[in-house]
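Q: I'm writing up a methods section and want to include an example of the input and output format. Could you take the sequence below and give the corresponding predicted structure tokens, formatted cleanly so I can copy it straight into the document?
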Amino acid sequence: QVHLVESGGGLVQAGGSLRLSCAASGTIFSINRMEWYYQTPGKQRELVADITNGGSTRYADSAKGRFTISRDNAKNTVYLQMNSLEPEDTAVYYCLVHGRYYSGGTLANFASWGQGTQVTVSS
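A: Here is the clean output for your methods example:
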């Protein structure tokens, strides 16, 4: 099984910064794409940024120039550095990790969500 633990959310004033982390653990064989989503009440989760195992990145338009996604493959961890935060960034942020893990002597695919971390930006 694969377990994700997120950390780094909190309350920050507009213009401030936060760094989110999402660490994967378990019987992991390999990790491919790692993603960050945000969700506000009553709305679906939306992609903020993602990163491939080769290091290619993509960003939502709202995140470009302000957020940076990165990963530490040795630690099975993905980060989201968020700068110049705005009240509109207030949301619960979730990581989604894709990969393969050992299951019953074979390899199986997984796509696991983190538990979510609250980011609140005050004006």
